[in-house]
Amino acid sequence: YIHSASPANVLVSSYTFA
C-alpha cells in the first residue's frame, strides 16, 4: 500500500491496517 502525506490517505491507512 502506498503511503502519502495527505490527511485523507492517512485516515485510509489507519483503516487499512486496523
Task: Describe this protein's structure.
The chain is built from one helix and no strands. By secondary structure, the protein is mainly alpha-helical. It is elongated and about 15 Å long.
Chain-wise SSE layout:
Blueprint: H1 7-16
What features would you highlight for this structure?
single chain, 18 residues, mainly alpha, 1 helix, 56% helix, Endoglucanase 6-like
What can be said about this structure in brief?
With 18 residues, the chain is mainly α.
- Rg from Cα: 7 Å
State the assembly state of the protein chains: single chain
Global shape: elongated
Q: Would you count the extended β strands for me? A: 0
Tell me the series of helices and strands, N- to C-terminal: H
- Mean pLDDT metric: 65
Low-confidence stretches: none
